[in-house]
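Repro:
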Amino acid sequence: MRISELGIPGSLLVAPRHHTDERGLFLEWYRPDLLSEALGHRAAPMVQGNLSTSARGTIRGIHFAEVPYGQAKYVTCVRGAVLDVLVDLRVGSPVFGRWEAVELDDVQREAVYVPEGVGHGFCALTETATVSYLVSRPFEPEREHCVNAFDSELDIPWPSREAIRSDRDRAAPPLSHLLGRGLLPRYEDCLSHIRERHEPHHNQ
């Protein structure tokens, strides 16, 4: 497994090692111990697994959860392909507002680790695309927010502007609106949350 840092602090791209023979393929797609080693601190423990199937051109996101407690994610595409996008929404981050896009598919079978406070979304690039993701906390509607994927300030180059989106995602406000209302997570709070998670790990 090869793990590399993305341009957003705390986010990782994971490339699994493929083992193939006449039977097919085997790989390890999730190793929290290696994620922790790459991060330099304990990776968020994943407590729930989700799966979604999307038609070509569907955009889901950009979603994020309040911190505390936030919601870290570990995302891979098990069928088809998606353009997976991370956006640093942590106020005070050295790269606040930066986005990074990675193509995830069922050939390379890479995955991304999305830390708490970082927004996440994706666009289906194939006729259908199935995304599997682990999350560090169950969905809490009252703590969940959304940034408009087509916010001109972010200027994310989605494959199509005629995207299929939920009503909620279409109505999502731009980044500046969320910032003005104080709804974005603070970078320092995200770091404190990581430290709180790390300390009990050493006391066990």
